[in-house]
Amino acid sequence: MKVAVYDTYVTRKDGGVMHFDILVPETLGSEEQVLLYGKDYLTHKKQEGQPLTTRECRYCHIEEASETVVNDIEARGYSIIEMQGC
After folding, report:
1. Which Gene3D superfamilies does this one have (predicted)?
2. Does the pTM of the predicted model rise above 0.70?
């Protein structure tokens, strides 16, 4: 499966920065849906209410998904790769 990768930087409630990638099927085509997935992830991390717009979350590239990413997408529609401060 090919996935679109959205590079995301969000300021945490404590002022630090979270850097993570949101991975979705390349055919999704809806930035609004990607942002909703990002907000879902932020809620899970107790960072709900933090700004998440196309300013913080930008399309980066397409890549072949790993088995773990495919499983995440099949289960909830998206996958997250935590990079820093998550």
Report:
1. NE1680-like
2. yes
Q: Is 15 left (phi over 0), alpha (psi -120 to 50) or beta?
A: left
First to last CA, the chain: 26
> Within 10 Å of residue 55's Cβ, how many Cβ atoms?
8
Instruction: Kindly tell me the sign of the dihedral angle through the C-alpha atoms of 52, 56, 58, 64.
Output: negative
Alpha helices in 4-86 (DSSP H): 31-44, 67-76
Characterize the bridge pairing of strands 17-25 and 79-84.
antiparallel
Query: Cα 12 to the chain's mean position, in Å?
Result: 15
State how beta strands 79-84 and 57-64 pair: unpaired
Q: Which tens digits make up the pLDDT trace of 17-61? A: 999 999 999 999 899 999 999 999 999 999 999 999 999 999 999
Query: How confident is the model over 69-84, as a mean pLDDT?
Result: 97
